[in-house]
Design goal:
By secondary structure, the chain is an alpha/beta fold. It contains 14 helices and 13 strands. The chain binds beta-D-fucopyranose. Beta-D-fucopyranose binds next to loops.
Length: about 450
């Protein structure tokens, strides 16, 4: 692996519902993912996050794995329903205790905590009141951010507000493949605005409590038109505006992209909202997995674009195309688009699922994951060489975990989790990353 700049922040990522389990313990309230996963037919094979990686009980072992790996930072998420079981008002101190202890243990091992405040596990009580379709959820989010920062802010200075609001909007509210399982198509657009409003309000609440580096994590993708014709070009531009621009433009340029479908005069956009949304962030988290190839929609398509397969490249176990050059293309493209308005970037997720079967000696030879990480890091390094300000890189994920509607069928971890015994086994990729990090400046 090439040498990255000194001080480059190496880390790994996880998320609360995907690893914690212990859904009924210590006063945790119900989240929309509990409801969704327990609804028959929603998650493959009926898997749920009830136990997941049992991280809620095994976190000391997981912190040891992080420390031994040699990462400087750990991105995890805080489960809102552990902190405020009903999503607002009463605070559950035992929920905060869990993250308080985790933060102390990380710092004792020399690992910087980078919590995400919302990685999709909305308290069910807020969903019952309309979820992110309801403007009030943005204010509840800022209130919750303040509660968490009041408890952890003496030790945590870097924060991520939201994880991938585009995915929560699209999968959760437009198509219904994630919790809360609503299929509103373009009627889901208020969810985008309210998430962004909540983000802006939370940035202000965190700053007021001493945060020094606040960011949002967006899922971004380079968009490639399927063919040279104008129809494909238009479809690709619409997709790009929806996937990338909808959440970056209002933050960085003060307005929604015209092609995103967000009407400038939408009644749910109030005076002053765009100022709040544009509250400067210190950095931008980007999750990159794959580019998207977009063509004009078929005659019966309900959408103004069609997502087409990318042929002729390797695929992950999930069937996602492996295109490392897309990461460079994305970085350079964002810089070209936003210029000086683009904040420093952290890659807050990148990784792949593979079919990891332990051999007779209980070793997992996940060569495909090593290739994936190595090639993406090389592409990222190239973008840095070309002048893009990238400050860190986090692998998704520390360990195998609950992969949303795919349940336990996709394994993204550097560490294997045996879900029968909860035994953790570092894979070859973990050893590879450990050596690579030890060789970094
Ligand atoms: C991202 C999510 C993360 C994980 C990876 C594979 O979209 O943020 O929780 O599921 O995909």
């Amino acid at each position: 692996m090439p040498s990255f700049p000194p001080g480059f922040l190496w880390g790994v990522s996880t998320a609360s519902y995907q690893i914690e389990g212990a859904v009924h313990e210590d006063g945790r309230g119900q989240s929309i993912w509990d409801t969704f996963a327990h609804t028959p037919g929603r998650v493959r094979d009926g898997d749920t996050g009830d136990v997941a990686c049992d991280h809620y009980h095994r976190w000391p072992e997981d912190v040891e794995l992080l420390g031994d790996l040699g990462v400087r930072a750990y991105r995890f998420s805080i489960a809102w329903p552990r902190v405020q079981p009903d999503g607002s008002g009463a605070v559950n101190p035992r929920g905060l205790d869990f993250y308080d202890n985790l933060v102390d243990a990380l710092l004792a091992r020399g690992v910087i905590p980078v919590p995400t405040l919302f990685h999709w596990d909305l308290p069910q009580a807020l969903e019952d009141a309309g979820g992110w379709l309801n403007r009030d959820t943005a204010y509840r989010f800022a209130e919750y951010a303040a509660v968490v920062a009041d408890r952890l802010g003496d030790r945590v200075t870097r924060w991520i507000t939201l994880n991938e609001p585009i995915v929560h909007l699209a999968e959760g509210y437009a198509f219904g493949t994630h919790a809360p399982g609503r299929a509103l198509m373009f009627d889901a657009l208020p969810v985008a605005h309210h998430q962004l409003l909540g983000h802006g309000l939370a940035v202000r609440a965190l700053r007021a409590r001493g945060a020094t580096e606040v960011m949002i994590t967006n899922n971004c993708t380079p968009v490639r038109p399927a063919g040279p014709g104008p129809e494909d070009a238009t479809a690709a531009a619409i997709y790009d505006a929806f996937h990338n621009g909808l959440f970056l433009d209002p933050m960085l340029t003060g307005r929604y992209p015209e092609l995103s479908g967000m009407p400038a005069d939408a009644p749910f956009i109030h005076d002053g909202d765009l100022d709040i949304i544009g509250t400067p962030v210190d950095a931008l988290g980007i999750n990159y997995y794959q580019p998207n190839r977009i063509g004009a929609p078929g005659a019966d398509s309900p959408l103004p674009f069609e997502i087409l397969p990318i042929e002729g490249v390797p695929q992950t176990a999930f069937g996602w195309p492996v295109v490392p050059g897309g990461l460079r293309e994305l970085m350079v493209g964002l810089r070209a688009r936003y210029g000086a308005a683009l904040p420093p970037i952290y890659i807050t997720e990148n990784g792949c699922s593979t079919v990891d079967v332990p051999d007779a000696d209980d070793r997992v030879h996940d060569a495909a994951r090593i290739d994936y990480l190595d090639s993406h890091l090389r592409a990222l390094h190239q973008a840095i060489d070309e002048g893009v300000d990238v400050r860190g890189y986090f692998v998704w994920s520390l360990m195998d975990n609950f992969e949303w509607e795919e349940g336990y069928h996709q394994r993204f971890g550097l560490v294997r989790v045996d879900y029968d015994t909860q035994r953790r086994t570092p894979k070859d990729s973990y050893e590879w990353l450990r050596s690579a990090l030890a060789a970094q400046p």
